[in-house]
């Protein structure tokens, strides 16, 4: 299956609890951390909920 690299570019400080939980679910939580996940609909949906906090580094 294809993979996708996601980098956290926004801080979870002063964000709603739901956004913090999405970050933790993606394996993020600290600034500039990069994780590699499978490219699934669930991961893409989580990225769309946090466009101000994460970016796709590599497609």
From TrEMBL:
It comes from the Bacteria. One of its GO terms (molecular function) is structural constituent of ribosome. InterPro entries: Ribo_uL30_ferredoxin-like_sf (IPR036919), Ribosomal_uL30_bac-type (IPR005996), Ribosomal_uL30_ferredoxin-like (IPR016082). The keyword Ribosomal protein applies. GO terms for biological process: translation. Residues 4-54 form the Large ribosomal subunit protein uL30-like ferredoxin-like fold domain. GO terms for cellular component: large ribosomal subunit. Keywords: Ribonucleoprotein, Ribosomal protein. NCBIfam families: rpmD_bact. Belongs to the universal ribosomal protein uL30 family. HAMAP family: Ribosomal_uL30_B (MF_01371_B). Part of the 50S ribosomal subunit. This is Large ribosomal subunit protein uL30. It comes from Sphingobium lactosutens DS20.
